[in-house]
Amino acid sequence: MDVVTLGETMMLFTPDNPGPMRYADRFSNRVAGAESNVAIGLARLGFQSGWISRLGDDEFGKKINAFIRGEGVDTSQVILDETADTGLFFKEKLAPGEWRVKYYRQGSAASRLKPGDVDESYIAEANYLHVTGITPALSDSCYETVLTAIDYARAHGVNVVFDPNLRRKLWPDHKARKVLTELVQKADIVLPGIEEAEFLFGNGTPEELARTFREKGASTVILKLGGTGAYYLNNAAEGYAEGFEVPEVVDPVGAGDGFSAGVLSGLLDGLDMKDAVQRGNAVGAMVVMAPGDVEGLPEKDRLVDFITNRNQSDVER
Amino acid sequence: MDVVTLGETMMLFTPDNPGPMRYADRFSNRVAGAESNVAIGLARLGFQSGWISRLGDDEFGKKINAFIRGEGVDTSQVILDETADTGLFFKEKLAPGEWRVKYYRQGSAASRLKPGDVDESYIAEANYLHVTGITPALSDSCYETVLTAIDYARAHGVNVVFDPNLRRKLWPDHKARKVLTELVQKADIVLPGIEEAEFLFGNGTPEELARTFREKGASTVILKLGGTGAYYLNNAAEGYAEGFEVPEVVDPVGAGDGFSAGVLSGLLDGLDMKDAVQRGNAVGAMVVMAPGDVEGLPEKDRLVDFITNRNQSDVER
Amino acid sequence: MDVVTLGETMMLFTPDNPGPMRYADRFSNRVAGAESNVAIGLARLGFQSGWISRLGDDEFGKKINAFIRGEGVDTSQVILDETADTGLFFKEKLAPGEWRVKYYRQGSAASRLKPGDVDESYIAEANYLHVTGITPALSDSCYETVLTAIDYARAHGVNVVFDPNLRRKLWPDHKARKVLTELVQKADIVLPGIEEAEFLFGNGTPEELARTFREKGASTVILKLGGTGAYYLNNAAEGYAEGFEVPEVVDPVGAGDGFSAGVLSGLLDGLDMKDAVQRGNAVGAMVVMAPGDVEGLPEKDRLVDFITNRNQSDVER
Amino acid sequence: MDVVTLGETMMLFTPDNPGPMRYADRFSNRVAGAESNVAIGLARLGFQSGWISRLGDDEFGKKINAFIRGEGVDTSQVILDETADTGLFFKEKLAPGEWRVKYYRQGSAASRLKPGDVDESYIAEANYLHVTGITPALSDSCYETVLTAIDYARAHGVNVVFDPNLRRKLWPDHKARKVLTELVQKADIVLPGIEEAEFLFGNGTPEELARTFREKGASTVILKLGGTGAYYLNNAAEGYAEGFEVPEVVDPVGAGDGFSAGVLSGLLDGLDMKDAVQRGNAVGAMVVMAPGDVEGLPEKDRLVDFITNRNQSDVER
Amino acid sequence: MDVVTLGETMMLFTPDNPGPMRYADRFSNRVAGAESNVAIGLARLGFQSGWISRLGDDEFGKKINAFIRGEGVDTSQVILDETADTGLFFKEKLAPGEWRVKYYRQGSAASRLKPGDVDESYIAEANYLHVTGITPALSDSCYETVLTAIDYARAHGVNVVFDPNLRRKLWPDHKARKVLTELVQKADIVLPGIEEAEFLFGNGTPEELARTFREKGASTVILKLGGTGAYYLNNAAEGYAEGFEVPEVVDPVGAGDGFSAGVLSGLLDGLDMKDAVQRGNAVGAMVVMAPGDVEGLPEKDRLVDFITNRNQSDVER
Amino acid sequence: MDVVTLGETMMLFTPDNPGPMRYADRFSNRVAGAESNVAIGLARLGFQSGWISRLGDDEFGKKINAFIRGEGVDTSQVILDETADTGLFFKEKLAPGEWRVKYYRQGSAASRLKPGDVDESYIAEANYLHVTGITPALSDSCYETVLTAIDYARAHGVNVVFDPNLRRKLWPDHKARKVLTELVQKADIVLPGIEEAEFLFGNGTPEELARTFREKGASTVILKLGGTGAYYLNNAAEGYAEGFEVPEVVDPVGAGDGFSAGVLSGLLDGLDMKDAVQRGNAVGAMVVMAPGDVEGLPEKDRLVDFITNRNQSDVER
């Protein structure tokens, strides 16, 4: 495996019409999960990725499993759990730019992930382990599972990539701050958004915040600055990679996951940090121009075209 | 109020296409609840009915509340609970005649109904209290709530109508048998299906089973025999009311609730038992010829037309 | 023109789901009109047909006009009326086999058809004039228009074909009976259903009823007996043409119009009465096996195939 | 009742796709009526509102009645009329920003509203009577009904709120101008849009036009200036309340009704005129950010959030 | 006929949702063809137009034929070919402004058009023959057919109108350049877009490019400059006609065809070149504000309204 | 691999409504291919199956590949061909029980399968090679490819299973008869339908026909007799396995593929011939009770339930 990731994927239901959901009577469903998005993004770019999770041994679990496997991700580590349900959630578009989410995920199969679900040898053979801050918020055993996976990675020299992915609905702020900081300490690469950085360490410039992450223990920090691009910092390199112009944001969800997939694909291809981050920006931009989390994830040739032909200027300020 | 009822109503999602739900990506939703069906059936026939429940203070709860109120049912006793979700469930049509249900109702708002939610004076002013065997299966506090409502009814001379509505997915058989039998003892009128009767008291003819119900304490027993009709027994009357011929069963769900509404409307109109049960048969037949639980519930004039013009023969065997 | 016809065509709205329309929130629309169905049926079989009518000069009128012209019917005599609306109606499927119709056609453009709208030379050049009993029910001027068209036809030796098409919602029984009888007297060929025949002349066998029609003035009577087939009677021929077996009636509407188109196509092709009526039976059968009024109308080769290969036995009893 | 209102509500059909309706074959339907929108807006904000009307005793009438009752509005005064149809209309989106409406409402049930339909005691117990300029345009008896309701209100000290709601398709300009002016004279509060004000009294600044309304007899004038906000004038107060920024207008219909509901809710809550008008602006803005007339109407907590957090500056020029 | 045109029309399938088509499972279909769009545009403006083509003798061919005939275009010259399929294509909206097309048109019925399919007398009686550069790209026999039609036109003094409509997917650039240039030489009026002009003759100002077209043999050149408008040049007149402001481009496809229809309608109405080109601009603008190729094509009164009321300034620079 | 199969899978489009496709404007698409159905059926029952094919390197090809891989089939041998399109077809339901198919598959990617696409070692490691009579009908190179795969199988002792799957639209009868007979000779197990058997060898009883197959070279023959069941014959066993009662045939397509998957799963599980054939009958019955080709394919536990609980009697006549 080039990249192994770990987390919950749910069935997402969206009403066919915008406005409050009480007026909706038609819904579409999709597969949605931050970590599986990253795995799919990498598979589409030609890399080998694997996804570790639990799903209910029910129709929704089987649908999710088939979808992710169909996208070329290795799902051999996924457990179908007969004793718990697949999580689901509803997403309403209340008004332009105003979304609201309702979960039915308490006690979900994924929330029962436990350290024993992680196969050390599976992690050991990967180049990167990717984890997010959603998983430890789901349950204590999920938290333990993430720690275990990280321990295995570190024991075998596998790079740990951490995306904080703060979800304030899932846990209290103080707990989130404590655990996310702990995970920053254990990560080789962290990919926070600027608001997440400020949530953790208070206000500051990207440079200042990145330095704080480094002081906490992460060797490489890539700070996502929205449409503007990203700032990266490690021992070897430092700078801004500007974002790509997007004529219209069709669906913003999944941009961060696309960014992660882009950056990791760049590193796996041996790009330098600047070009890898630029690739992250490009994938993120392509994702927001299509509906859904994964529809916009590009194949390699479309990605190269996009980077070559779109307006983007890379600056070392 | 002519009839007050009590129970959980959920948001029902059904895939647009038959077959296993993993292949579905479009769903429609409806309001579904046995007790609210009865209340709606009575309102449509021109009676005053009220429904006591808890709903999540969320979009689904508000949708359910508006729908039932729109149908003319008094919802003044419904509590919107900010701390719990509205229950929901999915219904797949796996094959012709083979349905499968999946619940997301654990810890739902309705499962938190508690005795204090029932206003004694509200019950006291009703002619009938209608309860089902679903509610005590939801939680201990739901069980207590049903008992409380029955106590209030009995204290004020309100007739207690009990429909066992056995749901084996919700509780173990022995517990179901124990509680349902307890409720039979407390009821004035019981409306079991023949399979439910056999679940409770073993095999037997309708006459034998009805006698057993009477021995347990119910004064009036109306045993539903599916399309065949129903057998009724009390101190004053006894006999069979044959069912109505139905050219095609479009959707069988809600037939029993329609039956209850029909019988109660007949009793409220002062019909004798035989004619009231016939009316129950008619409403049940009309419900199964339309999709959904409540779409087929008739207004008075359509019901009278139906009884007058359809093939049905009433026999005293 | 081989056949010219005259009448109202409306926009039909049907809810996507069965059951009472109050629960519907999605509707499909189609073009629906008995006379235009006949014209389309003939055009599809390769004949030249023309349709005289008024439509509102609005989007629905333009849709209807384009649809009928697209099917190959001459619409040069259609008037788009700026001062009136195109009629529309809703059709609910209340229960299996139970339909209910609601019209918004009062004062519609077609109800304003007047004698001056009919071009004598257009009628004069036709082989057949086809009219139905719907048109005179719409308004006095519509009634006059039908009489005028018939007068033109008779003056020029054009055969008058009359389909009673009784619509009891549109006029009182006594008026319907009077006007339809008057039109029977003026027709060369009448195509009543058995119920219509009994409405006009009381109960009787097909033979008796056909004789009554002949006594009233129609030279050829073809009595439609539903799936059973039809009975025909004129100076030259008499007998039954049996119907074709239909595995499932998908949508019964339009069967009579298809029957008319089939019979007329047979007569235009020089078939004897028996074979022409058989063709009517075949087209009617094909229409009920497809949704909508015109979807099942066959092209010549499919019709010949159907007659050749399906189970049907023609008997002279 | 806090507010009683009176008027026609129709079934609205909209094609699923934009462009001329002749190309549409799928339609959705909704409940649409200016006065019932106001009643629903008030109910959602926690007030008691009642709606007086006639509907056809048909499926559309029953649907409208159930919908409005479901929203918490008192519909006890609604008459289901067996002799007339529920009005309906179609709304096409011809091009961006270009809408076209087609009515089938002539002779509708609501157009038969008559003075005797209004219960004096029902009006007498209200705080406000809300009427619009649509109703008197429907028929003479509707005009008389509005006058009667106003007379009852004035006799019992109930405040009369009048929204001109000019519909030039429904009556000739000179008649509209005469009747609307008459109603302005009888109203306590008038809520005209700026174009309506100019239609009635010619061009002028908001201040000038408001003064003219006052001279005509209205004691309070609130002049709606579109997205810009509103100008208010009465004995006690005068000024501009600026509008709220809206990122995208999803559906402009219903904004004025939301404005009325917002202002009335503010007055009922004892706000001063400036804050009440600001609340009107806020509700109007929230309505245009959701599809449909009522989907965007807020509950109290969302309204307060919106006013607190959105960009709006209130100026006394 | 006022205008006769010639070319392929296909069945167009578009996924209901944007994004890559692999995620689509619902498609809508429409009729799409540049030349039939022009014919429909002219018919809607009240002119007589005819369309020559081949279609498969299959359901799609019959649908296309009925649709175009329904729009009032003469389809008497259309051949239904039993030995070939109707072409079809799929159109994906990959991202805002990024479309991708996939054809299934190789060996289609239209690609089998041959010189013998063109009736000399049909061309001879027209005022204009309209051809595009798509047809010669389909096959050698299509190329020959276009030449034959042009020869007939020139022999009978019928004006030849040529729209290059470059489709680089259909043939190699060098061949396209050669054939399109040949057709320019044979045309009286050419209607190239600016990119097409540059493809043929290299970069240049509109004036320079127009002169080159004239030198090649076309007597009138109308150069389309997108939203900006158009530049026209012939012996008698020269100048710019500015485009119309469009609030939102709903669907850009069909704009050029609408432009052609507008210009030709103007010339047929005897307008001078400047006003005819302005009319072309107006029709093109109206087409892009509606979905589909033909939905936005205006009737004469809407066109006149649009030209009168919209912002457009006509300048002679 | 337990079973390797080989063949074309296409994108299937079906109109949302029955009737001739010219009236359809909404289509759904699915993945459809006889051989991939078998592979999916086996994967769902827990076996390892692999599918060899070519697909266009386009969106439809990628959709098909992802779907089949998602179902758990090994698609490592699938080639995405940049030079050819994925085949597609349309399926109309003309009337109850009357379907019509239209292909766009000429020159499709799968028709370019060639012997070099088959990896000998991949076949060598399988227990069974499954081929059908569709593939050799697609092209000469497809025919050669099937022969090559069979040669590899026989060289390595892999059992060859052959399902004739006669498609008379794809090739002339004499050629079909010749090639299918040749393949029968090379197969270990043949699974013809009774009509296919009669097409190849003339009329006869199942016993006679089975003997003929054996004489031609197949060691095991399983003759499918529709709902009645199947007759099997080889050296060791002989008899009838009766079919299962099916309350309603929802979609008959895919029954034969399900039968093959069921039989092969039985043989892989070591069942005797009679029980394996019964399992084939069961899977076939389950497939026809769900829409689509693969939706009804059961997992092992549902299959066992079905066999245990349904009415079926196995007789040795």
TrEMBL record, chains A, B, C, D, E, F:
Keywords: ATP-binding, Kinase, Nucleotide-binding, Transferase. The keyword Nucleotide-binding applies. One of its GO terms (molecular function) is ATP binding. The keyword ATP-binding applies. Residues 2-299 form the Carbohydrate kinase PfkB domain. Pfam families: PfkB. InterPro entries: Carboh/pur_kinase_PfkB_CS, PfkB_Carbo_kinase, PfkB_dom, Ribo/fructo_kinase, Ribokinase-like. One of its GO terms (biological process) is fructose metabolic process. Belongs to the carbohydrate kinase PfkB family. This is 5-dehydro-2-deoxygluconokinase.
